[in-house]
Amino acid sequence: MATSTPETLTVRLAKPEEFDKIAASAREAFIHDPVFNYFGGHKELLPKDGDTVDTRNLETFFKFLLKSCHRVGGQIAVTVKSVETATPGVTEEKIVAGAFWCPPNKRLALWRVPTLVQSGIVEVLRRWGFSALMRVGFEYLDQSHAGMSAGYKAKGVKQSPDASWYLQLVWTEPAHQGQGIMPLMVHDAIAKAKPGIPFTLEATTSASRDRYLRLGFEEVYTINLGKGKVNALGIPASGAGAVGVSSWSMINWDPKPLESKS
């Protein structure tokens, strides 16, 4: 089922043949994201326009996330708009936003070796190196799991946070930000999920954290990555400027779709 926005943008499930375009769209949105700068070991901010080795490497990582979510039966949604083609009167869809949701107990983990390999982890390691495995697979995922577990314990919930719907990635291309697309995509996923199951995610910027707070998510843990190695942008630094990058573990304990909000 598709959901239309007032701007004639449409939220719908993605098609497998669109995966390359989806990864390219995600790369455009996250080109300067501090957490992904750190994951990729970027020495400087990547160019917003242009095809470089580093931008292709980042896109490869998003393809890996996309394929892994697809292989575990995740919900992959995109927001599209109609654009004119060179043929008068003929339009085509352009992907401007998307979201990857992993189902309960299907979140990506290092022990899911067959899923990792089939999704392209070898190519990611070839491009980013094994140091990326330490940053993403251990430093980030270990803190993420610890943060979610701490949030559940503080709430008195004995169930594992792995039993939640997990937002692996959500983005809106820069040209379409500020139009309310991200909230619609989150509520679209909530409307399709079985009621009563928490939704979990990590916000990679303070701005996105604040938007999730307005959507009913609670901040339960702050993850710090690369302290003493990189600055707040995820670029190598030393001394007082090497503060590291932060992301925030967040939980919506009782998610409700948009039409159910008072």
Explain what the structure shows.
The chain is built from 8 helices and 8 strands. It is an alpha+beta fold and 262 residues long. The chain has a single domain, classed as Aminopeptidase. It has an 8-stranded mixed β-sheet, with helices on both faces. The longest helix is centred in the middle third of the chain and has 26 residues. The mean pLDDT is 92. InterPro entries: Acyl_CoA_acyltransferase (IPR016181), Trichothecene_AcTrans (IPR052523). This is N-acetyltransferase domain-containing protein.
Low-pLDDT regions: none
Beta-strand segment tally: 8
Mean pLDDT: 92
- Number of H/I helices: 8
Strand content: 15-25%
**What is the share of helical residues?**
25-40%
* Spatial separation of the terminal alpha carbons: 24 Å
Overall tally of structural domains? 1
CATH architecture: 3-Layer(aba) Sandwich
Give the C-alpha Rg: 18 Å
The CATH superfamily turns out to be Gcn5-related N-acetyltransferase (GNAT)
CATH hierarchy, class: Alpha Beta
SS-based class: alpha+beta
State the strand order across the main sheet: 1-2-3-4-5-6-8-7
Which shape, going by the Cα principal axes?
globular
Series of H and E elements = EEHHHEEHHHEHEHEE
Instruction: Describe the largest sheet.
Output: 8 strands, mixed
CATH topology (level 3) name: Aminopeptidase
